[in-house]
Amino acid sequence: MTAPSYVVEAQGALAPAVSVAGVTAGYGRRILALEDVTFDVPRGVLAGLVGPNGSGKSTLLRVILGLLKSWRGDVRVFGQPASRVRRRIGYMPQAELVDWDFPVSVWDLVMMGRYSRVGPVRWPGEEDRRVVDQCLDHMSLVSVAHRQIGELSGGQQRRMLFARTLAQEPDIFFLDEPLAGLDAPSRHDILSHFEELRNRGKTLLVATHDLSCVAACFDLTLLLNRRVVAYGAPAQVFTREQLDAAFGRHLLAIPTLEGLYVSHHEHG
Predict the structure, then answer these.
(1) Is the pTM for the entire model greater than 0.90?
(2) Main-chain dihedrals φ then ψ at residue 254, nearest 5 degrees
(3) Which of 15, 88, 112, 225 could pair with 171 as two cysteines, CB 3.0-4.6 Å apart?
(4) 42-77: pLDDT as tens digits
(5) How far is CA 96 from the centre of its chain?
(6) How far is CA 55 from the centre of its chain?
């Protein structure tokens, strides 16, 4: 039986920002993380990637970015392999993957976001420093710019990682759990930046556990549990049946068209 495809058509003749077709991927020879995943992300949208722990969200981002080779399937970013459009891509990894003891300042780490534009033979110039200062200001990090990165709070660390991604000035953002550990004001501030970037024509694919923010602010939602459970507008995706299919026994409390939905069903 052929698995269903979840494809949102791009506007006009331009290739989608992201096109994933029949991707199956995993680790080693036996650990399956993704199975026959197919979807398109149009240009200029804010899209959420949601699902339970272990559903393959981070793996999917790594496959799209070319950091992990899929077993089967094809992935394109702006119609090409990610390796050919690297300068147009911004990636924010999970904070847990960063070595916070590394002896580098906040300012220097954000400057690393400029390296794809500076190149290996040129020192950062005045324009690069201006962009870094602007990104730090946007993320309210100017006062800690010269502190070692491990001295920051968890919320500051995530804002710093996002500032580094902003400094790349990409056309598409791949963000892995950027809202985790943020207090309500910081979360609201980051979401405002997402919406501003989207309004400027940028594309964002955001892996997150914060379903309430996705329901309230995002254009599209990919509900994933190894396979695509549902894809479309949040109001269409966050239904009782589809949430139960994805999360099983997990407790959920998120807004839906029917009001606040709390799921605590156990599926054997």
Answers:
(1) no
(2) -140, 155
(3) 88
(4) 999 999 999 999 999 999 999 999 999 999 999 999
(5) 15
(6) 14
